[in-house]
Amino acid sequence: MRIFIHSSLSDLELSMAVGVVVGINNRVNSPELSKIISDVEDDVRKTMSIESLKNDELIRLYRNFYWRLGIDPTKQRPAQEALIRRILKGDGLPRINPLVDIGNVASVKYKVPVGLYDLRKIGQVDYIVLRRAADGELFTPLGSPKMELTRNQIVLATNDGRILHVYPYRDSELTKVDEFTSDVLIIVAGIRNVNDNVLFSALSEIEALCETLLNGKVLTHGLVNNNRSLDFSIKI
Fold first, then answer.
1. Is there a contact between 63 and 169 (Cβ–Cβ < 8 Å)?
2. Is pLDDT larger for residue 5 or for residue 55?
3. 15 close to 225: Cβ distance less than 8 angstroms
4. Run of H or E including 79
5. For residue 147, what are the β-bridge partners?
6. Spacing of C-alpha 43 from chain mean position
7. pLDDT tens, 75-101?
8. Burial of 57 (0-12, 13-18, 19+ CB in 10 A)
9. Nearest-angstrom CA–CA distance, 151 and 93
């Protein structure tokens, strides 16, 4: 399987830290994970506010990226900003399942969008590509009805046309992580001026927690940009 960014997006200077973790037990009950989530929530409340959030350097970069695509970031929040706002409003992070919770922790901690995809639901495909959507192309977002996309949106899609993600904020119902997920594709979504080290730090934390808390094993990881793709093989 190959993961790459389409050449038509070269002007946007996008990048992705990509990892594959296999053999996960996503049905464990980990008190350690609960503590990690609580600590991240406490840190957000101590160091951020609703008023100051829009001036945060990373949050501002992703907001500006949305404006460049013609998307209003005050109506469709970047994924990490939405999670941080949830904490600041007193709701805390949603508790979905251990793997999703780990992804949310990293997204909040490093202020970057994180996408998680069940590889067994993706199945055997030749490639996954980050590309522009076509007008009228259909996408089934998590927890919502199908929606029509426009060409100003960017999607992560398989070679057979299934859309996994609207970049960089919404994952698909088709490949969502559930309690039976054992093998996962992790995408940390980067844009221009977001340092690759930040993306890799978020990815590395997810991988480490998957190994220590969920008994997973990292199969491969790497940086994907306009000059570099990632290839891996997995039995599904």
1. no
2. 5
3. yes
4. helix 79-88
5. 139
6. 21
7. 888 899 999 999 999 999 999 999 999
8. exposed
9. 32
User: Which residue shows structure tokens 């996503």?
Assistant: 26
Which two three-digit tokens encode residue 157? 């899609």
Which are the contacts of 67, defined by CB distance < 8 A and separation ≥ 6?
A: 73
Q: Is the peptide bond before 113 cis (omega within 30 degrees of 0)?
A: no
Reported residue count of the chain is 236
Say if CB 172 and CB 139 are below 8 A apart.
yes
* Domain regions of the chain by residue span: 2-28+95-231
Tell me the C-alpha distance between 99 and 30, whole Å: 11
* Fold (topology level) of 2-28+95-231: Phenylalanyl-tRNA Synthetase; Chain B, domain 3 (3.50.40)
- Whether the model clears a pTM of 0.90, i.e. scores above it, the answer is yes
